[in-house]
Amino acid sequence: MDEVIVVGGGLAGLVAARRLAEAGLGVRVLEAEDGVGGRVRSRTVEGFTIDRGFQVLFTAYPAVRRELDLEALSLRSFSPGATICRPGSRSTLADPLREPGLALETLFNHELTFGDKLRVVRLQRRLRRSDPEAIFPGPRETIRAYLEGRQVRWDPVARRIV
Fold it and tell me: Under 8 Å CB-to-CB from 65, ≥6 apart: which residues?
């Protein structure tokens, strides 16, 4: 039997190894870390499970439906937004239109300036009124190019939208 070596035990490497094995080939997976999963892994710290890697799984992707047993994963949905934890503080950012109960917490969140929040609201309102097919002029425009074309960009040094 022929043997194939798959370098990397991340999600793509594991899927490739499984496909090769299903095709009847011998497979050896080489992984530098102490376990498989690539960036996707969990660990327990003082009784808390901490996830690293994917926090969101888009179940509509055809590859996800084809490669994963979604029933076995016991997935849960959650509201869009973020909880930002820093030493001694915790803050929430959410879409107040989808989560009205978090509107005040989002409004007074210190992670973004008030101007940033206004720019995001304006962009959101403009996008909601737009036909999704008309948002990008062509199939190759990136999100970055779209935002830069509207003079909206994230400044990582100032940690704000400019």
Answer: 59
Beta carbons of 79 and 98 less than 8 angstroms apart: yes
Q: Report yes or no: 109 and 91 within 8 Å, Cβ to Cβ.
A: yes
pTM over 0.85: no
Whole-angstrom CA distances from 137 to 131, 154, 161 are 12, 22, 23
Taking the C-alpha atoms of residue 82 and residue 92, their distance in angstroms, rounded to an integer, is 6
Residues of the chain with confidence (pLDDT) below 50: none
pLDDT digits (tens, 9 = 90+) for 85-126: 888 888 888 888 888 898 898 888 888 888 888 888 888 888
Distance CA 55, CA 95 (A): 18
Q: According to the 3-state scheme, what is the secondary structure of 37-90?
A: CCCCEEEEECCEEEEECCCCCCCCCHHHHHHCCHHHHCCCCCCCEEEEEECCEE
